[in-house]
Amino acid sequence: MTALLEVHDLSKHFGGLAAVNACTFTAAEGQITGLIGPNGAGKSTAIDLVSGFKIPDTGTVLFEGSQVQGKAPHRISRMGMIRTFQTPREWPALTVLENLLLARWDGRRERFWRSVRGPSRAEKAAAADQVVRARNILDEFSLLELRNERAGNLSGGQKRLVEFARIRMAQPRLVILDEPMGGVNPVLGERMATAVLGFVTDGTSVVIVEHNLPFIERVTDNVIVMSEGRVIAEGPFDSLRSNQDVVDAYLGEMPTYDDAVV
Ligand code: ADP
Ligand code: MG
């Protein structure tokens, strides 16, 4: 299995606190990799370091074999790695459809706007194709009726779905999702699980941080467990239930979940 993302010995301190401490893990191409751990474990900081939003003190991040640590976020996203934040981000004043049309990562975005204004019939046809594609994706996410709504007016769950639709539109090589279920109505959970599995079908590998362990169990191929800035365990979700370090880190959270399922 090819490692799409290789993180080696990554560290980040805030004053005296080692938020991420010699973290090493990989995410394989074509897989959904879970990143779990208690609050404050360093998951979001690790994502910030990988995606260029923070600069690591030490360590390397290889994306498709190229070093990306310390590069600006827009450069990393143009290479095909995009990430979401714990709170959805959208262009609030633009419509849902426009938000999708702008969701390209490799320069096609600029080409899209040029083609709208441009004189060439071929360019106009390409732009029209993108609108058709965006509408199809919105339809899949049951968002088509909201296409002319300003994205800023949507509910938290709808904004999350728009974000997922934008990822489908962009088709990056890798998407990193930071707690996509946070603050989302559980009714949306099933659609979000389907959407995450759909990313992989579409050629987008996934790294997902999520506290909802049934969701993690359902969608992931492999799970990395962090605690106090370090990776303490790694493996398929099932293999982690009986791992004492993991159970200890969660202070019994995982066994409670087992009980709930039985
Ligand atoms: P997680 O996402 O796993 O909950 P975070 O990466 O957000 O954890 O945080 C890891 C640790 O780093 C926590 O103790 C948090 O308080 C601390 N931390 C995160 N960001 C900052 C910051 N900008 N300044 C100082 N401390 C921070
Ligand atoms: Mg976090």
UniProtKB/TrEMBL annotation:
Any single Gene Ontology cellular-component annotation: plasma membrane
Keywords: ATP-binding, Nucleotide-binding, Transport
ABC transporter domain location: 5-253
Domain of life assignment: Bacteria
GO molecular function: ATP binding; ATP hydrolysis activity
SMART domains: AAA
Protein name, per record: ABC transporter ATP-binding protein
